[in-house]
Design brief:
The complex is a heterotrimer of chains A (312), B (313) and C (634).
Chain A: E1 23-32, E2 42-52, E3 57-61, H1 68-76, E4 81-88, E5 91-92, H2 98-103, E6 108-111, H3 125-135, H4 140-153, H5 170-182, E7 188-192, H6 200-217, E8 220-225, H7 228-234, E9 237-242, E10 245-251, H8 252-257, H9 262-270, H10 276-295, H11 304-308
Parallel strand pairs in A: 3-8, 3-9, 6-7, 7-8
Antiparallel strand pairs in A: 1-2, 1-4, 4-5, 9-10
Chain B: H1 2-29, H2 34-39, H3 45-55, H4 61-73, H5 87-123, H6 125-140, H7 143-157, H8 173-207, H9 210-217, H10 222-259, H11 265-275, H12 278-306, H13 308-311
Helix pairs in contact in B: 1-12, 5-6, 5-8, 5-10, 6-8, 7-8, 7-10, 8-10, 10-11, 10-12, 11-12
Chain C: H1 7-10, H2 15-22, H3 25-30, H4 33-50, H5 52-55, H6 87-123, H7 125-139, H8 143-154, H9 158-186, H10 188-195, H11 200-236, H12 247-256, H13 266-293, E1 318-319, E2 328-341, E3 344-357, E4 361-365, H14 372-380, E5 388-390, E6 393-396, E7 399-400, H15 406-412, E8 417-420, H16 434-446, H17 450-463, H18 469-474, H19 482-494, E9 500-504, H20 512-529, E10 532-537, H21 540-546, E11 549-554, E12 557-563, H22 564-569, H23 574-582, H24 593-602, H25 604-607, H26 610-613
Parallel strand pairs in C: 1-12, 4-10, 4-11, 8-9, 9-10
Antiparallel strand pairs in C: 2-3, 2-5, 2-6, 6-7, 11-12
Helix pairs in contact in C: 4-6, 4-13, 6-7, 6-9, 6-11, 7-9, 8-9, 9-11, 11-12, 11-13, 12-13, 16-17, 17-19, 19-20
Amino acid sequence: MTGTSNGTMNGTPRKERPAEPLLVAEDLVVEYPSKGWRKPPFRVLKGVSISIGAGETLGLVGESGSGKTTLGRAVLGLAPIASGTVRFDGKVISGLGAKERRALSSDIQVVFQDPYTSLNPAMTVNDILSEPLRVAGTPRAEAEKRVRDLLDHVRLPADAGERLPREFSGGQRQRIAIARALSRDPRVIVCDEPVSALDLSTQARVLDLFVEIQERTGVAYLFVTHDLSVVRHISHRVAVMRGGEIIETGDAATVTTAPQHPYTQRLLLAAPVPDPQRQAERRAERRRLAAVLAAGTSTEVPTNASMSGDRA
Amino acid sequence: MIVFLVRRVVAGLVLVLVIATTTFALMGLTGSDPVRQIVGQTATQQQVTAKSAELGLDQPFVVRYGHWLADAVHGNLGSSWFSGESVTSSLENKLPVTLSIVLAALLVSAVLSTVLGVAAAVRRGALDQVVQLLAVLGFAVPSFLVALVFAVVIGVDLGWLPATGYVPLADSAGGWLRSITLPALSLSVGAIAATAQQVRGSMVDVLRADYVRTLRSRGISERSLLFRHALRNAAPAALTVLALQFIGLVGGAVVVEKVFGLNGIGSQATSAGSQGDTPVVMGVVVVMVALVVVVNILMDLAYGWLNPKVRVG
Amino acid sequence: MKLPDSDDTTGAVAPAVAAQGRAGILRRLLRNPVAVTCLVLLALISLASLFAPLLTSQDPARSSLTDSLAPMSGKHPLGGDGVGRDVLARLLYGGRTSLLGALLAVAVAVVIGVPAGLVAGYYRKWFDAVSSWVSNLLMAVPAIIVLLVVMSAVGQNTYLAMAVFGVLMSPGVFRLIRASVISVREELYVDAARVSGLTDARIIRRHILPVVQAPTIIQAAQMLGLGIVIQSGLEFLGLGSATQASWGSMLNDAFGNIYTKPELMVWPGLALAVTVAAFGLLGNALRDALDGTAVTGRKPSRGATTRKPGAEKKAPPVISEAQDTDDALLVLEGLTVSYPTAQGEKTVVDGVCLTVRRGEVLGLVGESGSGKSQTAFAILGLLPREAQVATTRLEFDGTELGRLGRAAMNRYRGHRIAYVPQEPMSNLDPSFRIGAQLVEPVRRHLGLSAAEARTKTLGLLERVGISDPERVFRAYPHQISGGMAQRVLIAGAVSCEPDLLIADEPTTALDVTVQAEVLDLMRSLQSERNMGVILVTHDFGVVADLCDRVTVMQTGAVVESAPVDQLFADPQHPYTRMLLASTLEDAEPRSALSLSRTVSASAAGAVGIAGTTDPAGVTNSAGITNTGRQEGPA
C-alpha cells in the first residue's frame, strides 16, 4: 500500500494506517440455523480470510453455493458471524451493536445484483438517493444538491430524480444503486454481482463506470461475481471461493489467465470464449484436464504456458 | 408422515383443551347467575343454595373444572342444568343432523368450486364473469339469508323439497337426502364462492407456469395437461381455503339449523347459550372444535399427499 | 473504444409511463364505475342511518298491536312488522347498529393485527412463534360459537360481541401483515436501507408500512362486510340487545312471520346484501387499482420493449449467404408477434426470417427485448394466447405448421420438434416424479407400453450423463440439482428423437462448469442424431462453442445472419460489432494496485487520477475514460 489514496470527494483527508489494509476478514465462519430439530447449523463460510487495501478491488469469484455472496453480506453485517473477525480501518466491526453498526454506514456501502428489487419501487429516485444523507443529518438543501451531483457522477440526467425506479432500464437502475452507494463517500463498496442481470453492452458500460469512480474517489471494492471475465476486467486481486473456503488468491492477471488451483483452472476453461477457433482449443484443453483429473494420476496441472496459450 | 400425524393430533388436542378451559372460565367466572334462572325468581335463598350445592357451584372454580375435565376424559360430559338430560347422549342424538348437513355442504363445495374454478380459468370470458359475480354474491349474501330464500321459494312456494325437519338416514335414505339438500346447499354457497375463486386463481397461475409450457412442448394432450398436471398443482392452495371455509360451515350450521327447524347441535348451542347452561355449552363447544380439528387433520393429510415437498424430504 | 450511447445513459423515458405512475390510486379507483357505484351506495346507506331521525318520525322500538303486519301506508311507508313496529324506521336505525358494529369489529381487528403482524414479521424469533400459534388457534374456532359463549357469559350486548368478533378476525389481519412484511424484508432494498444506516423504526415506517397499507385497506373493506354478516346472524338467532333495531333482528321477526308475510324479509335482506356486496366489490376494485400501479418491483414482461426513437435509424439486415432453402428443415418467413396493451398494439417480433438445415446448429443471438425467445416460442406454437402471431411461411420438413390445429400441432411438438427451456427447476412439474413426466410423452408419441417406455427413459437418463438413473427416475424435481434437472429436460426433449431442437438459453441458469458439461452433452446428442438446433442465447461464448450459423436480432428484427466463423471474424452490421466489442473476454486484466498506481502516477497527466491529485474533484471529470479494455474485437 502506498497509502496515497486518501483523497475523497469532499477533500477531507482520512486517517490511514499503512500497517493494515483497509478491510480485513480473518477466519470468518458464518452459520445459518438449520430447519430441522436439533440439526447442526449450516456452515456457509468455513474460516475465510481476505484483505482489501484502500482504493483496491478484490474480485471474489465462485459458483453458486460457494459462499461468495455470504462473505459480502458478512462484511455488511447482514449475515450471522459465528466466529472470526472483520476489521475495518483497524477496528473490529464484526459483532457490533445495531447503533455502532449504523455509524459505519458512511464508510461501507453496497450495490446489489438485482437492480429490480434493490430500489424501493414506491420511492422516487430523489428520495432513494437522499435517504442515506437525511439519516446522517444532512440538511435538506444540501442533500438535494448532493443528489444532483450524484446523478451527474453516474451519468444520469438531472431530471431522473423526479421519477420512479420502474421508469428506468436495468442498466440505469444499477446506476441509481451505485449513486446511492456513493452518497456518503464510502471507503469500501461491496458489489454483489452488480452486472450479472444486465445485457452485454450495458454490462460493459456499468463496469467502466465502476472503474472510473474508483479512480476518481479511491474507493475500494469487494466485487463478488461468478464471471471470470468480469472479474479480470475490474479487479486488482482475485480470490476464488468454493464450498465456503478460499482456494486461491493472487493478482488478477495470474488468477484469471494462469491459475494454480485445479478448480480455478476448470472454472477458467469452462467459460466459453467468443471465438470459434479459440473455443475449440479451450474445449480440447478442458477435456484433457478432465481426463487427467479423472485418471487420478496427479493433481499436477498442465503447464501455465498452455493455459494462457489460448489467449492472445 | 407418522411424526407429522402425531404432531397434528397433539396440536388438535391442545386446541380442544385450550378452548374448553377458556369457555369454562368464561361461563364460570363472569357475573351471570344461572341458578336463579333455574329455580325461578320466586324461589327462596335456601332453595338457591341447595340448588347451587346440587350442581356443585359452591365449590371453587378450579375444583369444578377439574371434575368436569376428569369426567370429560372418560366420555361423560355431565348433564344439563335445566333438563337434567345427559349431555353425551343428547349430543349423540343431535350430532348426525349437524354432521349430515356440514359434511354434505363440504362435499358440494369441493366439487362445485373445482368445476366452476377450472372452467373459469380455462374458458375465461363470460363464464369467468359468472364465477366472479357468484363470488361476490356468495360473499355478500349470508348463509341464513340464502336459507330463508330457499325455504320460502323452494320449500314453501314450489314445495319441491321439505322446508323443515330431518329424516334420519337409517329411516329412509331418500328422505334423508331430501331433508338435508336445502340446508346443505344454502350452507355451501359462501364456501363455493370463496373456494371457486381460489381454484380459479391458482389454476390461472399454474397454467402460466414454465413447466406447463414445457409439458405443452412435449405434445401432451390438453386434457392430461389440465386435469392431470395443472389441477394437481392448483389443488393444495384450494384445499387450504376449503379447510378455512369448513370452520365457517360449522358456525353457519348454527344459523341454518334454526331456519330449517333442524334439531342439531347448532340449535342446541343457541338455546343452551341463551340460558347459560354450562354443561351443554361445554359439550357443544368441545364437539364442534373436535370436528374442526378432525377435518383439518384429514385436509392436512390430503395436502401432504398432493404436495411431494411435504411428503418426501 | 467509445460505445454507442444507447438508452442506458440518456435516460429517455416514455412520458406516458411516467404520467400513469403518478396518477393516485384514488383517481384510478374513481375511474372504475363499479367502485364509484359502491362508494355512492355505501355513502347513501351511511347517511340514511346517520340521519335516521330526520327521515322518519317513527320510533323503531315502539310496537303497537294494531299495526301488526300493517301494509304499506302513509304512516308506515314500508308497513309494520310482526309486533307492529315501523319497518322503515327499523331499517334506518338498524343500519346504525350494523355499520357501527362492523366498524368496531374491524377497528379491533386492525389494532391487534397490524402491530402484531409488523413485529412478528420483522423481528421473527419467539414473538413470531407465539403469535402465530395464537392466531392459528383463534382461526380454528367457529366464530359464532365463541360469540354464543361470550354472550351467554357476559350478556346480550351487540357491541361487546362485535369487539370480540374483531379479536377473532385479527388473525386474518395478522397473517396478511406478517406475510407482507416477511416478503418485503427479503427485498434487497430493505437490506440496502439497513446498510445505509436506517434504524429499524425508520425502515418500518419508510419501507414496510407503505407496502402493507394497501392490503390492509382491502382486507378492512371485506372485513366490514363480514362483520355485518356475523352481526346480523347473531341478531337473527335472537342474541343481541332486544331494544336495539338491527337488520338481523328484522330478519328474525320476518322469519317468525314467514308463512303470513314473507315480504318482510325483502327490506332487511336487501339492505344486508347490498351493503356487504358493496364492501366486497369495493375491496376488489381497490385491489385492481393497486395492481394497475404495480407497486411490486417486477421486471417488465420478457421481450416487451417499446421501440426507441433511436432504433429507427437501423442499418439494413446483413444476410451473408444465399437463402438456399432446398435442404432446409425449417423455413420461417415474415414472423410478426404483437401484444395488445393499454397504449395500443406492441410489436415484439417484426418480420423475422430464418432457416435451419438438417443437422445444423443455428444460434439466435440478441439482448433482452430483441424478440429471440418470442421467435422460438412462435415456432413451437407456445406463445401466450393473447399474442397475435402472423407468418408468411412457417414450413417444417415440407409441412406448413401455421395452418395446423392444436391437436395436429401436438403430434409435431415433442415428437419431431422439441424444446429445452432456460430455467431447469421451474420447468419440471413439481407434483410428479421425474420418471412419470418423461414417460408420458414417449408413450403418447411412440405408442410404447409402460414397461418399454420406462426402459427407454432409463436409457435416456443414462445417456444424458446421470449416473444413477433409477434414483432420478423415482425422484421428485425438488430432490435433484439444477444441473441434473437440465439434463433431465434435455433427455425429455430428445426422447422421441426429434428432427429439430429449440433450446432457449439452455445454460444461462447454470454454473459455468455445469454449463460446459451441458454444452458438451448437447453437442454430442446433436451430432449423434443429426438434429437441427435453434440455440437462443445472449452469450457469444456459447455461440462460438456450439453454433454453425448465427442470426443476430435487435428489437424484434434480424440484423445479421452469417456462418459462425465469418460473423466473429468480420461482423458486418454495426449492432453486431457493438455487441462483440462489449464482450469482456479480450479485456486486459487489471494489474495489481501498487503497479497500477505507479503506472498511473507516471502518466498522471494523460489519465488523470482525480481521486489522488484533485481533492475537490466534485465535478464530473470527463477526461477519465481509462477502462483497461482493448479496442474492438481481437
